[in-house]
Write a structure and sequence with these properties.
The protein has 311 residues and is an all-alpha fold. The chain has 14 helices and 2 strands, in the order E-E-H-H-H-H-H-H-H-H-H-H-H-H-H-H. The longest helix is centred in the C-terminal third of the chain and has 29 residues. The radius of gyration is 20 Å and the shape is globular. The protein starts with a strand and ends with a helix.
């Protein structure tokens, strides 16, 4: 996909699909975790356990963290935009709204990213095909979840605004994070630096504001959800995220939020034996058409078809 000089090749699309699977489980894990832990504590555990995981990976890979203070300031800003703000808002929001509605609101991220990238960058400008594709894909997300998820709209307003705020923060993080490729920082190092910086902010905040050490010890299912959230949906996911961001730009990597509901539906059908409803199949087709529109290939196909028909 070409977008103002940024290209998404087949490898990029494959990584985007894998990322959607890794992040698709986060809403489920959060839904389990909030049954036994407060929001800020979950966010702190998520980034700190992810940081430990990535530091171990770096150690055995023989890769060193940068010592440049400017790079670490960038890690801190990225951590705030990509972890601290959105994690806290989404987790808090899911204490007030259903995970299905949260997924729909989270899928607005690329819409915000298109506007932000147009205003803040010189090489990721708005195009008609990009807007059309995003709207079609977002429509597919709404169709997948159906009217049941939308019934929550209008209720728990602050919970909805929290998840939308997270989407805005994610979009700004995607734009800010492009600098790490220019600085020559490897994706795994960027992921590690980001969650490490986030841990330094979130752990003290959680200890002071929520006093988790004074709370009852959660059950095993809560701990399994937190560990899965940290290792699978954060540590490994961010390695992919920064790799895609480096090669394809902010707008493209944030298309993952359109694919997350699709991944959840397919995984449920494959591993849990869940039945696919007609609306879910329609939604999957719409998401596919939206991505093809953004990719530009569908317009090329239509143009070629029209030319052949006119001959």
């Amino acid at each position: 996909m070409e977008s103002g000089g940024w290209t998404m090749n087949r490898g990029g699309w494959f990584m985007l699909v894998v990322l959607s699977v890794l992040w698709g489980g986060s809403f489920f894990f959060i839904g389990v975790a909030v049954q036994g832990l407060p929001p800020l504590t979950i966010a702190a555990l998520r980034v700190s356990l992810a940081a430990i995981t990535l530091l171990v990976i770096l150690y055995f890979s023989g890769v060193l963290l940068p010592r440049d203070q400017g790079v670490w300031r960038s890690f801190l800003v990225m951590g705030v935009l990509n972890n601290v703000i959105p994690f806290c808002l989404i987790i808090w929001g899911q204490t007030r709204i259903a995970s299905g509605l949260a997924s729909i609101l989270n899928a607005t991220t690329p819409l915000f990213a298109v506007v932000a990238a147009h205003l803040l960058t010189t090489d990721e400008k708005i195009t008609p095909q990009k807007v059309a594709g995003l709207l079609i894909g977002f429509g597919g997300v709404i169709v997948i979840f159906g009217q049941d998820a939308l019934q929550g709209v209008g209720h728990s307003t602050f919970g909805q605004l929290a998840v939308l705020g997270a989407a805005v923060s994610y979009s700004l993080a995607g734009i800010y994070g492009r600098r790490f490729a220019r600085l020559g920082v490897r994706p795994v190092v960027t992921a590690t630096g980001q969650v490490t910086a986030s841990s330094l902010l979130l752990i003290p905040a959680a200890l002071v504001l929520e006093r988790p050490l004074d709370l009852p010890i959660p059950g095993l299912e809560v701990w399994l959800a937190v560990v899965s959230l940290a290792v699978v949906s954060t540590a490994f996911a961010y390695i992919l995220y920064f790799r895609i961001l480096a090669i394809a730009g902010a707008t493209n990597v944030l298309l993952v939020t359109l694919l997350i509901p699709l991944s959840a539906i397919v995984l449920g059908a494959l591993f849990l034996g869940e039945q696919l409803a007609a609306r879910q199949l329609v939604g999957m087709v719409l998401i596919g058409l939206g991505l093809l529109a953004i990719d530009g290939r569908i317009f090329i196909y239509v143009q070629q078809t029209l030319k052949l028909g006119s001959k």
